[in-house]
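sorry for the late reply, my laptop died twice this morning and i had to redo everyting from scratch. anyway the thing you sent over, i finally got around to it. pasting the sequence first so we're on the same page, its 274 residues, then the predicted structure underneath. double check i copied it right bc i was rushing
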Amino acid sequence: MASSIRLVDKDINICLAYTDSAVTHISEEEKALFNHFVEVNKKMHTLGKNNKAYIKTKAHLDQLTPYEETLFLDVDQVWLWEKTPSQIFEELGQHEYVIENSGYVRFDNIIFPQAENWSDMQDVRTAYEFTDERFYKIHSEFIFFKRTDNIRTLFEKIREVYTKPKVKPKEFAGAYPDEYAYAVAMSILQFYPSIDNYVPTFWYPREKKDLHLHQIAELYLTLSIGGAYVDESSKKQYNAVVKRAFNELGLQSIPFQITNFTDKRTYLTERTKE
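ok and here's the structure:
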């Protein structure tokens, strides 16, 4: 991710939030791609007494970022080339909060499509006494936010919902999905993203479009290889972007490449159920 960003945007600030073991394999020249490093406190990725829940880290983005305006990106994606991150900051700068989403349903609608939720939505409506609030189908791989009182309140509510859910969501990655906590917190506060149906990331399992890489770059900002399984086309496209970035930046390290052995289900036991 960092190399693909640096290829198109030489001066943008990049911060890596990490755990101690996560950076041991990164070379010095790769570390030079970043401007800041922020270590993730153990409490931020622990649920209960000592249960690892790395995905819970996303409930602490406001505490981790060193910036007044932040664009959070999952690391399992690459930035494409039609627009730079700096251009996106300019485009989103008028907004306080924008998160990737595929729209919403309302709690006064008795039909809740299965794809929209991580839990039984009737139970969620009852437990939180929702009436006509929106419930967003969000994708937390791409989040823009500013350091404001509203954002601080939002993240405090996200952490509360995540650690003490009134209705437990489906298990995900050995813990709970952060997107459930985001969506419920947004509904409680009625604090919603400024842009609806905002999907800047191409993720094949969701988009289900057979596109060439240049077509993806014209329509999306990033290409994701998230999920337990990565399709062959996305692997090749991801590898091509990373290889090009390393070559053009003159990096001597061997670029990370997706293979059949880097599907998450082969080394993360908590993802085998997906």
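The mean pLDDT is 90.
thats about all i looked at so far, will dig more tmrw
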